[in-house]
Amino acid sequence: LGSALFVIGHYTEGLVRYLLTRAGIWGAPTILVGPPELCNAMARRLLRDPKLGLRPIGLIGDRPALDSAEAGPVPMLGGSADLARLSEQAEVVIVAAAALLPGEGWPGITLSDVRAPHVVVAENADGLPNVGMHTRNLGGALGLEVRFDLFQPGHLAIKRWIDLMVTVPLLLLASPLILMLALAVKIADPGHAFYRQRRVGRDGRELNVLKLRTMYADAESRLQEHLERNPQARAEWERFFKLKDDPRILPVIGHFLRRSSLDELPQLWNIVCGGMSLVGPRPFPEYHMASFDPGFQSIRVSVPPGLTGLWQVSSRSGGDLEVQQEEDLFYIRNWSPWLDIYILLETFPAVLTSRGAR
């Protein structure tokens, strides 16, 4: 009963938050203070993810940069001299760390000038995780302690135990459905209903991922012929490694399996065998991995690949390489069992609505 109430509560909370966001009344009014370029980028992040509960209403920036700064998603409200008066309009004020120091055309500010109930000092440090950090007093200096819980002794064992507890019964329940889908594939195109696709697994080892076949047997030759005839399709392929109108996909059953992500169901066996986890960065082919910088590739293969992941429940196929890297890094740096549970719960509505699938 407790588990059922937890799941119902999660989806109810998500629905209420969605309705309030659509009505424009979700999120604390937030003002950002600092260099316009940095504040505009921060505002875009907040607007892109309303679940954070912060609704940017304007910026306070240095006047010399006003004319040169590109138009941002929220208006420029004023300069540092207006901070005390303007900050009264906000519930939250986010101050870029750079704004605390004087610079060219900017006198610097003190936090005592802010007249808002909540003040957040933001540092543009892409290498730091977003959660799992603690402040440390280092003899009068402020230190930030970073924890990577996924690398704590025993935590990967806990993750593996959860995988088996969920996946074994799920595989037994899903087996009849997998067999029916396999039969539909064989009717659409003679040949093997299942196939193994080589992907990059943990620690860079080769991983043979099981999938239901959604493409013609001569898929690769069809792809090359299509890309040679269609420059727009080639550009799309080079950016996403996917095509909206893919000539390789089987009619009806192939499109259905891809939209519903049911072609991934056989990977439950990969999880049981230990090559994958329920949640983690999706295992990519070598050509896809080679498109990322070497540093990110090294980080990405340090954790088990997953059947679903943060990218799959947010942007899915709509995200380019930069978005994929950003969201995979967030997961790796901020892992917790609760994040895995959240992603699993979000996977079901993402699959049911075919959000972003191709």
Features:
358 residues, alpha/beta, Rossmann fold, 2 domains, 5-stranded parallel β-sheet, two-stranded antiparallel ribbon, 13 helices
Describe it:
The chain is of the alpha/beta class and 358 residues long. The strands form four sheets. It has a five-stranded parallel sheet with strand order 3-2-1-4-5. The chain has a two-stranded antiparallel ribbon with strand order 6-7. Strands 8-9 form a two-stranded antiparallel ribbon. The protein has 13 helices and eleven strands. A hairpin with a 5-residue loop joins strand 8 and strand 9 (206-212). The protein is elongated, with a radius of gyration of 24 Å. The longest helix has 34 residues, at 155-188. It folds into two domains: 2-124, Rossmann fold (3-Layer(aba) Sandwich), CATH 3.40.50; 155-214 and 249-352, no CATH class.
List the helices and strands and how they pair.
Layout lengths: L1 H21 L5 E6 L2 H13 L5 E7 L15 E3 L4 H5 L4 E5 L21 E5 L10 E6 L2 E6 L8 H34 L5 E7 L5 E7 L6 H11 L1 H10 L12 H8 L6 H7 L3 E3 L6 H4 L4 H7 L5 E3 L1 H4 L7 H13 L3 H16 L6
Parallel strand pairs: 1-2, 1-4, 2-3, 4-5, 10-11
Antiparallel strand pairs: 6-7, 8-9
